[in-house]
From TrEMBL:
Classification via Pfam families: HemolysinCabind (PF00353)
PANTHER family: S-LAYER PROTEIN
Chief localization: secreted
Source lineage: Bacteria, Pseudomonadati, Pseudomonadota, Gammaproteobacteria, Methylococcales
A GO molecular-function annotation: calcium ion binding
Protein name, UniProt field: Calcium-binding protein
GO cellular component: extracellular region
Annotated source species: Methylovulum psychrotolerans
Subcellular localization(s) per the UniProt record: Secreted
Keywords: Calcium, Secreted
Gene3D superfamilies: Serralysin-like metalloprotease, C-terminal
SUPFAM superfamilies recorded: beta-Roll
Amino acid sequence: MTTYTLTTNTDNFVGGLGKDAFKGTYNDGATGTWGLLDTLNGGAGFDTLSINPIGTAAITPDDRYWSHVSHIEKVVINTTGPGAQTLTTGAFFEAAFAGAGVVLKTTSGGGAITVDMSSFTGTTTLTTVTTGGAQALTMGTGPATVTAKSGAGALTINGAGLTSVLAITTGAGAQTLGDGSGGGAHLVTVTATSIGGAQTITSTSTHAVTVQAHSTAGVQTILTGAGADMINAATTAAINTIATGEGDDTVNIAATATGGYNINGGLGNDIINGGAGNDSIAGGDGDDKLDGGAGNDTLTGGLGDDVLNGGTGVDSMTGGNGSDLYVVDNASDIIIESNADASMGGIDRVYSYLGAYTLVANLENGLIMSTDTANLTGNNLDNLLYAGAGDNVLDGRQGSDTALYTYAGSAVTVNLAVTGSQNTLGSGLDTLISIENLLGSDYNDTLTGNAGGNILNGGLGADTLIGGDGNDRYTADNSRDVIIETNATKAGGIDIVYSDLSAYTLGTNIENGRVNATDAANLTGNSLNNVLYAGVGDNVLNGGLGIDTASYLYASSAVTVSLAVTSTQNTLGSGSDTLIGIERLTGSDYNDTLTGNAKVNVLTGGMGADTLTGGGGKDIFDFNALSDMGALSGNADIITDFVRGQDKIDLSTLDANTATTANDGFSGFIDNTTSFSAAGQLMFLDGVLYGSTNTDSSAEFAIQLTGITALDNSDIRL
């Protein structure tokens, strides 16, 4: 390697093909061996230019000095002196070194240090030391690594391209570390031993910032920007406030740190872990995970689906919007679920490590985490109560509540008809109070209902589900599941099976079935009058014996279905289906087209403006709710082939007077064809049947009949 040293004269150096080193000095900011007329061309190879000052005065290098420098791959500038040190780069510096690696080392005995490289786009490494003066360090848009040791003076570091900042403060000066909106992840390490002065770390970057706060007293505020930031505070850190920005941020306070922290997660999905002190932690927006650690902490989830774990101590946890998870391990823990609206507040749950816990207002679900004897009590909502491994009392109280054995270690046998303690075999001795529904384990369970309407879901495994009186709902998700409905009378209720299987046949005494599978699946009825609900895939619905209905209640869009088609038909809104032994049709929530066949059919359009065609036979057009019907002829259901004396319009289940609690029937047609005078009246005008269900003069529903000029009470089931 060839070394060139500048002289006091005008120098012109051209490097060779190898690695060259160029050395020069700068004398007290006035005269010296590095001058405006010097020319330096590094040539080929990796070349280094080193500039070192002499003397004691403050220096302010002139940007013009770099105008005759080229082909330098690395420049090292050392400035040392007791006075102020200033380095400002401009266009000439940019032209000379934008493609090089710049190393700046500045030491001041007590004066201020000012570095302004805001216009520089190259890679920079800056090291500064001052015993007393303020430091104002502004880096450029290129990658920059800064190590700054500050005494009593203020320390400010900014830069659009900061990638790493190590700030060591030993005095009482204020500290502000910031960055702009430039390149990759930023690392900020702070070691502050000052006993005074506000220490603030501020980031407005859209990129990740990592803050390692090893302060013993000084760093008090950390504010980060929109990046995915990481903040780690040591045991002795004295930070008062941490506020993160829009990114998915992580804040870790040392588990033994006893100082109280105020932490705000801001936007993004944040992970915040408190220390041993009494911390106040707010997740802000996003799906946050908050852990208070030791101490009596206050956690606030804010928006999003949050996890709030107060840790040891007496903690206060407040959720909000979103589906929140709370962890309680102290009987004095306080949970406040502030949103009672499930559509906004989500479905919330509590993991309880206590011997007994009662769900507070607006909490839907609870899980016993204790392995010992423990009780869990619901509230007035429809609660899910998860049994633990020990002996439990699960009390649902009001609402339609479910006992779940999802976490059982082996198969369970549970009977809702047993009012005392029962051996579940796989999950301890449990007592079930005010429980209406059961969910089994991952094993071969036996679940039995009671005289009420129960939901029985065995979960994984080959399960046996036994119903009885009441409207029971079963889930079949294993081809070896056995469903037994013991009551064959009408008093036994209307029962339904939700099938997740590719094929299922309704057992004895089961009236209805729903295809719950999203793929192609078949559903077959029995000798009863079955309602078979189509799934989203391609289905074969076979009614078997009885008068059976194919329902498209769960279709995602409007369906077109015809009972006259005996082969596979594209329903448009619910796959390609084959209907066998089906006499009745029920539509979706959209604008459906339903067509019967030559037999007696019942067509129910449901919500939406539907088009109904009975076909041959004595057909019934069924209307059950005002929400299924339009109020004007323009959005009314249309019956295309009504035959007087043969077909019927069924309004018998439609409440004719909404002002009463009873389900009132209609009184019939009125002579007036302009307005209504009472609830329960009907009017036929210009091919449209109008009905009134209150005392005003306008119609609450309308049904259009194609080709019909008159109607009377004989055409209506009132």
